[in-house]
Amino acid sequence: TSARQPLQLGLHALVWVGDWTPRSAEHAISSTAALGFDLIEVPLLDPSTVDGAMTRRLLDEHGLGAACSLGLDPSADVSSEDPAVVARGRDLLGQAVDAAAEMGATDLCGVLYSVLAKYPAPLTDRSRAHVVESMAWLADRAAGSGLRVNLEVVNRYETNVVNTTADMLTLIGDTGADLGVHLDTYHMHIEENGMTEAVHQAVDAGRLRYVHVGESHRGYLGTGNVDFDTFCATLREVEYAGPVVFESFSSAVVHPTLSNQLAVWRNLWDDSEDLAKHAMAFLAERLR
Ligand code: FUD
């Protein structure tokens, strides 16, 4: 019933490939473009393994947009209490900004403030201060690159920094920087009060800039417990106009670090193309 929204539909590269050799990049980019998606999300956990110039050529050739996402390495965690580890984290983030800008990405997102890991204890004040300073630094570092920088809200098993949209908005407020909120239905399903409130909180603050859609088991949309009808209706109601990226993980496609960090132990699908086609139809029906 609401007007058509100009939101962009995207696919996470892990639907297709676990590395970013020229051959893998070509396969992921051409397959994503062929199914009618607007963008591909390229993981940048180790920016040195991603050739920005090669990626940009392939994106141009296939008329596809891009976003980049990452979580930090334990040796380079800006939420560490140790200033040397924080400094390595900023180096890693700086490399990610450069690689994302080189490929012409529009967004840098994900867990830019933490390792994707189950932390053994709550966040300390010192760690939180390091996160706030580092995110302000990152916003500054990315200024002029053309990248929007969006911080993803993830569940308690993947960070101890913040786990809800309300706490992320407080954190972003403390940085004083123009950072976006990146929401993900998989994480919202675990931590938020339903699929509507967090969207409104982020929109009311003027910060909803990136969305991941993922099922409760991270497989085919509509086969788990996430209430996508309510979530998508809410995105339409608030006239959300940014990227909506389908993210899914199966033991069939393995990334050397991300798959283990996200505990991708199960085979939820084998056929990448069928999965991606299904996601496109599922999202187009609810969002376009
Ligand atoms: C992690 C997550 C992802 C991750 C990204 C890295 O649970 O939801 O968004 O940050 O996939 O490429």
List keywords for this structure.
eight-stranded parallel beta barrel; binds D-fructose; alpha/beta; 288 residues; TIM Barrel
Topology (SSEs and partners):
Layout: E1 8-12, H1 22-34, E2 39-43, H2 52-62, E3 65-72, H3 83-103, E4 107-115, H4 125-142, E5 148-152, H5 165-175, E6 180-184, H6 185-191, H7 197-204, E7 208-213, H8 228-237, E8 243-246, H9 258-261, H10 272-287
Parallel strand pairs: 1-2, 1-8, 2-3, 3-4, 4-5, 5-6, 6-7, 7-8
Helix pairs in contact: 1-2, 2-3, 3-4, 4-5
The protein binds D-fructose.
Q: Summarize the main sheet.
A: 8 strands, parallel, barrel
Radius of gyration equals 17 Å
User: According to CATH, what is the class?
Assistant: Alpha Beta
List low-confidence stretches: none
Would you identify the CATH H-level superfamily? Answer: Divalent-metal-dependent TIM barrel enzymes
Mean pLDDT reading: 97
Strand order of the largest sheet: 1-2-3-4-5-6-7-8
Number of helices: 10
CATH fold group: TIM Barrel
What count of structural domains?
A: 1
Helices and strands, in N-to-C order? EHEHEHEHEHEHHEHEHH
Task: Write the CATH architecture name.
Answer: Alpha-Beta Barrel
Tell me, briefly, the overall form.
Answer: globular
Bound chemical compounds: D-fructose
Query: What is the straight-line distance between the termini?
Result: 11 Å
- Quantity of strands, as a count: 8
Structural class, please?
alpha/beta
Report on this structure.
The protein is an alpha/beta fold and 288 residues long. It has a single domain, classed as Divalent-metal-dependent TIM barrel enzymes (TIM Barrel). It has ten helices and eight strands. It has an eight-stranded parallel β-barrel with strand order 1-2-3-4-5-6-7-8, surrounded by seven helices. The mean pLDDT is 97. D-fructose binds next to strand 3 and strand 4.
